[in-house]
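User: I'll paste a sequence; please echo it back and then give the predicted structure.

Assistant: Echoing your sequence first, then the prediction.
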Amino acid sequence: MSSIKAATHPKPEWLSDTFLIVDPQPLFIGSDEALIPQIRDQAHQYRVVYATRFINLPGSLYRKALSWPEGAPEAPDAQLHLQIAEIPQLRVVTKTGYCPPEALWSEMAAAGIKQVHICGWNLDACVLAAAFSAWDAGIQPVVLADLCSSSWDGPPGWRETVLQLIDRQFGCVSEGVPLTEV
């Protein structure tokens, strides 16, 4: 896709100091752990690293409307992957829906954060929702496409379609660390 920008490492100093890892939990990762070491290594380039942790509360719409009981607060599948949980500068944010809580965006805004690099699971749901909610909070989301996955095995081309949507809505999808200043 021509709208995805190329990248090199290391991260230039003028880029975001903030990294958001969406739902790095066995519930979503499943047996596809290939991204974990890459995300962990990428996280070391950032001053601030957040990870969301989804919990599926009793009575939630996930349970009622989707008949999806997984992810109970104390369930092993709802805990952060150990390699992510061990990132020294990690701040964990619990969420009960698709989007990170507004308190996360308020904290970032109060700290003067203007841009956040986003990766994780599921590209087609929670990563997309995080990008929309960052945007709505006045923080430029940059989705690091090569560090995103999904537990959904959709129809052919779904991933490219989601990346095109993200690029259209926010103008910033990157394969790795973006080279364009925001």
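Strands lie at 18-22, 48-54, 90-95, 115-120, 140-148, 173-174. Residues 1-14, 178-182 have pLDDT under 50 and may be disordered.
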